[in-house]
Amino acid sequence: MTLPAAAYTDVAQYERERHAVFGRQWQLAAFAAALRAPGDYVRHEFAGWNVVVVVDNAGALRAFHNVCRHRAGPLVDEDAGRCTSFVCRYHGWAYDLDGSLLSARDFGDEALDLDEFPLHEVQVASWRGLVFVNLDAEMPPLDTDHGAFFAAMADQPLEEFSYSHRVVHPVDANWKVYTDNYGEGYHVPLVHPELNRELVAREYRVEVGDHFSLHTAPTRSGAVNAGRWLWRYPNLALNIYPNGMNVERFIPAGPRRTLVVYDYFFRTDDPENADVERMGREVLAEDRAICEAVQRNLEAGVYDTGVLSPRHENGLVAFHEWLAASLADVH
Ligand code: FES
Ligand SMILES: [Fe+2]
């Protein structure tokens, strides 16, 4: 069975997922290439959470909620930059790169104990140039949690690819509508005519592993796709091409809004890279149109649950099981 329609529309469900899924699962927050020297920072907002990852003065990665301890002002507004300390945008409290409060500008209370107000710190860890955060201090380390997924990526030459650029696509649908859509190749022949010409869609396979799935399809000659996609619960996908990859995140921005963020990496400046991006845009536009139509239909009230194809939609079954486990395991 599918999830019930309310799972994709209900504000209370979204709030539960914010905490039970996005508040506890490792999230890709930055790329190591942007975090080289002390003071380099990257801000990442997802499902209402707002985090800043920074290189501290000792050269270590740190991550904090981008929320001032005075009255919740933001420390940084930019997506990335370099600073020597964090100065809150609201009243100017200043924090060291290690999160400790250095000064409370013109506060008027000599007795204020600065040590009582460090930034709220979160877990941070990196793997092969990708930097992840986890808001829950009790969750297992990244290497353990993502071990099976990382092993599945072991033969991919990520280090040979350099960061190229980002494209952000807003989609007016719940993040799970988009995730379900990503999770199967069943729709490829109908929704993606051009991609369908590159792939042997009949042989599109989804293999489910530990909190990830590997999608493969044989490609026809001349295809810009390598026919290899990996998805990691809850919202990360690595789309591999012969000459690079697209690191894709489905970032919840509300119960009915998702930002699909593509970060492209390429091996060389190849004219084929433009084809990869054009194809990505086209496929995304086609997926967006169908996901937005599905979201409207889920909200209309006539549909509650449906059935999932054992041949094509095994990835969705696994996703829904992991989601249910996250929602049941709230502490
Ligand atoms: S909210 Fe940050 S200084 Fe007031
Ligand atoms: Fe699609």
Topology:
Elements: H1 11-22, E1 27-31, E2 40-46, E3 49-55, E4 61-65, E5 80-82, E6 86-87, E7 94-95, E8 101-103, E9 121-127, E10 130-134, H2 142-145, H3 147-152, E11 162-171, H4 175-182, H5 188-191, H6 193-198, E12 205-208, E13 212-216, E14 228-232, E15 236-241, E16 244-252, E17 258-266, H7 272-300, H8 314-328
Antiparallel strand pairs: 1-10, 2-3, 2-5, 3-4, 4-9, 6-7, 7-8, 9-10, 11-17, 12-13, 13-14, 14-15, 15-16, 16-17
Helix pairs in contact: 1-8
This protein binds FE2/S2 (inorganic) cluster (FES) and fe (ii) ion.
Description:
By secondary structure, this protein is of the alpha+beta class. The chain has helices at 11-22, 142-145, 147-152, 175-182, 188-191, 193-198, 272-300, 314-328; strands at residues 27-31, 40-46, 49-55, 61-65, 80-82, 86-87, 94-95, 101-103, 121-127, 130-134, 162-171, 205-208, 212-216, 228-232, 236-241, 244-252, 258-266. The strands form 3 sheets. It has a 7-stranded antiparallel β-sheet with strand order 1-10-9-4-3-2-5, with no helix packed on it. Helix 1 (11-22) crosses helix 8. The radius of gyration is 21 Å and the shape is globular. The chain starts with 10 loop residues before the first helix and ends with a helix. It binds FE2/S2 (inorganic) cluster and fe (ii) ion (FE2). FE2/S2 (inorganic) cluster (FES) binds next to loops.
